[in-house]
Amino acid sequence: MEIQSNDERAFRQVYEQVFPVLMRVVYHVTNNQDLAEEICQEAFIRFFDKAMEFPSLDDAKYWLIRVSKNLAINQVKRKSREMNMVDKLKKYPTNGANHTDGSSVLMEKETKKLVQDAIDQLPEKFRLVIVMKEYTDMDYKQIAQVLHISESNVKVRVYRARKMLESILSQE
Amino acid sequence: MCVDDELLNTYLDGELQEPWRTQVQEHLSYCNACRQRLEQLRSLHEKIADAVLPDAEIKARQDRVLQYFEKTRFDSSSKKFHIFRKRVQVRLVPALITSAAAFVVIFIGAFVFFGNNSQQGQEILPGVASPIDSAHIRQVTEIQQPSLDDFSLDQIIQHLDAMGYAVKLELKAVTPLQ
User: Does domain A102-172 sit in CATH 1.25.40.10?
Assistant: First the structure.
């Protein structure tokens, strides 16, 4: 099924399916939800405004991930750190109040934060691959297609990223 | 020989192809150390995967960004559609009015025309017939009924000859040429 990116119906279909994937990839790469939202919006704006044709929904999805991944990498060094600090100060106390079992939620949040901070420390090429592997349903072949690298390269990067994460998390 | 971490990771992700997959499975069935290592890797994978950004966090942002597109992109396309619709209306309305007017004119015109012929014709016709010149009628009848003077002698002889008559010419009186 062909996808015309500036056709409203096709756009909505792609948007509904791809936005969550895109948001996850960009968030876990940038460690900042507001920035991730901005980047996702920008990627979809480009998608719509360029009025492109894609042979399938997957091709549109790969294009969007590629664009937002590049935007994320460009922005992350500039914006992420200062916004991240503001974000944490703003959100941390309010979110815990919504749950009854405060201690377990805090532990869970703490673990999540540790993991995300560990991902943050990975070099860019390992971070991208492990984020796509762990937070999307893409297999090695699809990740290779998005990043324009070989499947065996994806396999090696996944292994090395996990090894680094294991090492970082064991120290904390 | 035990399975290395790279192979175990690939196995864990379900990406290990045959025959290596079966070989790793066989090895795991009797090697405790590798089984333990696989469990460690599985636990690490689950720990990382659990840190996923939850759907609830995404939903609000997804709706907000979609609203942006509804305002800035989809709106403009629907505005275009409205403009198009207005253009169609502008083009269609005069055409409808013109054709409706034409129908009315033809209808009334036809009614008046045939009405005159049938009802008032007898009163009007004598007035129309009176100025006709009688000389025209005579002229037409003269053309329709030519006399012998219109034809030369040769033409008359040829005509009669063609009709099968035997023609005998006699000269009764001749006026000499001067």
Answer: no
